[in-house]
From TrEMBL:
Residues 21-143 form the SEC7 domain. Pfam families: Sec7 (PF01369). This is CYH1 protein. InterPro entries: Sec7_C_sf, Sec7_dom, Sec7_dom_sf. One of its GO terms (molecular function) is guanyl-nucleotide exchange factor activity. It comes from Ciconia maguari. PANTHER family: CYTOHESIN-1, GUANYL-NUCLEOTIDE EXCHANGE FACTOR. PROSITE patterns: SEC7 (PS50190). GO terms for biological process: regulation of ARF protein signal transduction. Transmembrane segments: none annotated.
Length: 143
């Protein structure tokens, strides 16, 4: 009888553990969805929200990976964030470009692939920074 009670108790604990994990995952998914919405409205605030809630690390590589996957993100917002002139955003832009593989693609194919991942902002200086980063990566992949 005691063995049955212990088995029932352990089984109960395992079931509760699973539901706790599910709740944590659901909570995390809700926060990520909220972070995406915030990003689409204001990219800097969205990234800040994701970092503050430990959903994203505060490294240019991690943020670039998040933008590269782009799940549920507005491509115009991605372009605006990458085009900013502050030093950290420029590092994120370079990390973002590093995620693209342009080896053995002609210039037009590579440019299409690059521009498919975001929308170019309207400001000439932002476009210039982005195209400069693209050119460096393209030449690196195709010496």
């Amino acid at each position: 009888q005691r063995l049955k009670d212990e088995i029932a108790e352990v089984t109960n604990e395992i079931e509760n553990l699973g539901s706790t994990e599910e709740r944590k995952n659901m909570q995390r998914n809700k926060q990520v969805a909220m972070g995406r919405k915030k990003f689409n409205m204001d990219p800097k605030k969205g990234i800040q929200f994701l970092i503050e809630n430990d959903l994203l690390k505060n490294t240019c590589e991690d943020i670039a990976q998040f933008l590269y996957k782009g799940e549920g993100l507005n491509k115009t917002a991605i372009g605006d964030y990458l085009g900013e002139r502050d030093e950290f955003n420029i590092q994120v832009l370079h990390a973002f470009v590093e995620l693209h593989e342009f080896t053995d693609l002609n210039l037009v194919q590579a440019l299409r692939q690059f521009l498919w991942s975001f929308r170019l902002p309207g400001e000439a200086q932002k476009i210039d920074r982005m195209m400069e980063a693209f050119a460096q990566r393209y030449c690196q992949c195709n010496p």
